[in-house]
Amino acid sequence: MTEQAGDIKQGFLWKQEHLAPLPIPTGQPASDLMNIIWRKNQVFLDIGSFAMGAGWLTLHMGSVLVLSICTWMALTGKIWLSLICLAFMGGGLMGTLWYFFIKQWRKPLIPPIRFNRQRREVCITKSDGSYWFVPWEKVHAIAPSVTNLNTGGASQHGSLLLWFPLEGLEHEAYGPDVEGWVLMVNPGGGISSMAQWECIRSFMEVGPDVVPQALENICGLSLWQIFCREFEVSRQKIGLFLTVVWEVGCMFPVFNPMGAYWITQKKLKHIPDLTAPEVIEWSKPLPPEQWGKRSLELEQAILQREAELASLA
Questions:
Q1: What stretches pass through the bilayer (predicted)?
Q2: Nearest Cα to 202, choosing from 2, 40, 310, 34?
Q3: Residues with Cβ < 8 Å from 227, sequence gap 6 or more?
Q4: Model's pTM, two decimal places?
Q5: First to last CA, the chain
Q6: What phi and psi values does residue 216 have, to the nearest 5 degrees?
Q7: ∠ Cα 142 146 148 (to 5°)
Q8: 154 - beta bridge partners?
Q9: What does the pLDDT look like over 71-89, one tens digit per residue?
């Protein structure tokens, strides 16, 4: 049996929640936590995934750590040991990791997935230019999450997985071993995954105006604006003094978040478009009388879910 929205599978320290089909309201506001909205207008929504900021933060922190250790060794008179450490840990380990990071960053962006709300279809385009269309109500959205136990306590990690049937297999049921086209982002699982999925669901079922603007958290802001916003949020949480100590003494020298924002901005300035003639025609506006309609099953499911949410308010 095909899983439906609301179905939950869970085991020891893991859980898997199905958000669609059918795409019913999650009860969460639409929030583009991972900046997957690349392009938006009244007809379609393009989503994609480029998340290398965490890799930058990790590699920059590792580089600072290696340089700090080597500098400390040199200051204590162990110059040869510091040079050996710099060669093996800096050049050998960190240099190799930076090489693979840069190589991955230079790869062209994968074409976005386009959701057409007027036709109620989704266009999947591969890097080689091949494409096919999937009915909107056949899209599977799954929110898997795991709980990690360590000496610091328990922490939850999760993602949002969008699964699309391949061409000619639109009625194939989702399964871990069933081949399909997959897009996965990591907003954190649970409520965060619901809020991220709600960006797509709300665009298709409610309208463009309830969905955040494309890349409004990245490309719409300068690095200085991003810094000021993050500084203000931190100041409200932990106070001005601790914010200055944290930002100046730790975040900038150790992690360099501005570098992560910069590489993301630079990469997402030139988002690939869908250029196949049939897709261009498919993306054009339709007169309202030709718009696709919800299935009766989805209409009933949405009404039932809205009533449930209203009773909880």
A1: 43-74, 80-101
A2: 40
A3: 258
A4: 0.83
A5: 32
A6: -70, -20
A7: 165
A8: 149
A9: 888 888 888 888 888 888 8
